[in-house]
Amino acid sequence: MDEAVLGKVTALKVHGVKKRGWAGRGYRLVGGVSILLGAALFAGAFRTARYGPATGLSLLAVGILLMLFGPKLEEWFPARSKERADSTKSVAREYAEALIIAVLLALVIRTFVVQAFKIPSGSMLPTLQIGDHILVNKFIYSFAALKRGDIIVFKFPQDETRDFIKRVIGLPGETLEIRGRQVLINGVPVSEPYAVTSDGPFARAGDRDRLGPIVIPPDKLFMMGDNRDHSMDSRVWGFLDIHKIKGKAILVYFSIRSEDIPFASIPRGVVYVVTHPSIIRWGRLGTLLR
């Protein structure tokens, strides 16, 4: 091969590498911004009415994926790589593509895969503590059947703008009865090692000790909190439509004694947690929910 031809080939190769280099930088930049923004939302440094820790977790996942695999996309799609090498596409367009991919991945993860929730009350004590942050599997019931004992997040029947979390106690078609705080399904006592009772106030007198027998309609569930005397559940608001389920709670990924934080301001609260790590319930991190 003569020197002129060799020079042209070398120039094309260098040109192609340069273009792919800008694409790789675009994915890394968008990935880094996604991680920073996701970490801020996740930690509660700021939030809006629509975006909070759940969105932050999705952005963190997307950022990590882009940092790890974004620069390799052109290697996986050689035809696309050649088109980029031969084009005069601007750097701004490369960054725009990376940003669009990040947004789409975040939306897919949050909508169909997993979502994060924070536990604000004690209705599921001792299984879930106030200040627990949990992950909810949003697609599991597309492949698996609901079971008694599953802990699920759902739209509150009386106000669907709010999310509730309770345990599945009664399934469609079953006959449920509560007799002396003992739950019976089809006349058989149910073993509930997770349930706790006390003599504290309850939403409606007597409901904790007796109910039914009642037949659970098709496509309905009977839900109860583990903290039986401090839970507003199906004993108060009735059956849950299975189409209102958001997903199954699977894991505690973070937990903090939020009631011990002396500041109402979120930024000051975050600083307090960083400087007082003992406020974090380290032993609960990674707890599987059953």
Q: Can you walk me through this structure?
A:
The chain has helices at residues 3-43, 53-69, 73-76, 78-86, 91-113, 234-237, 266-275; strands spanning 114-118, 132-137, 151-155, 163-170, 175-179, 182-185, 188-189, 210-215, 220-224, 240-241, 245-255, 287-288. With 290 residues, it is α+β, with helices and mostly antiparallel strands. The protein folds into two domains: 3-113, no CATH class; 119-288, Umud Fragment, subunit A, CATH 2.10.109. The strands form two sheets. Strands 1, 2, 3, 4, 9, 10, 11 and 12 form an eight-stranded antiparallel sheet that branches. It is globular and about 70 Å long. 28% of the residues are buried. Mean pLDDT is 74; it is low at 5-23 and 79-88.
For the structure shown, list the relevant keywords.
globular, 2 domains, 7 helices, Umud Fragment, subunit A, 290 residues, eight-stranded antiparallel β-sheet, alpha+beta, 12 strands, 21% strand
The CATH topology of the largest domain is given as Umud Fragment, subunit A
CATH class of the largest domain: Mainly Beta
- Which bin fits the share of residues in helices? 25-40%
Largest beta-sheet details: 8 strands, antiparallel
Work out the count of structural domains: 2
CATH architecture classification name of the largest domain: Ribbon
Total helices: the number is 7
Query: Which H/E pattern describes the elements?
Result: HHHHHEEEEEEEEEHEEHE
CATH-wise, what's the superfamily of the largest domain?
A: Umud Fragment, subunit A
Shape: globular
Overall strand count: 12
Structure class: alpha+beta
- What is the CA–CA distance across the termini? 69 Å
Our Rg estimate from Cα atoms comes to: 26 Å
Runs with pLDDT <50, length 5+? 5-23, 79-88
What number is the mean pLDDT? 74
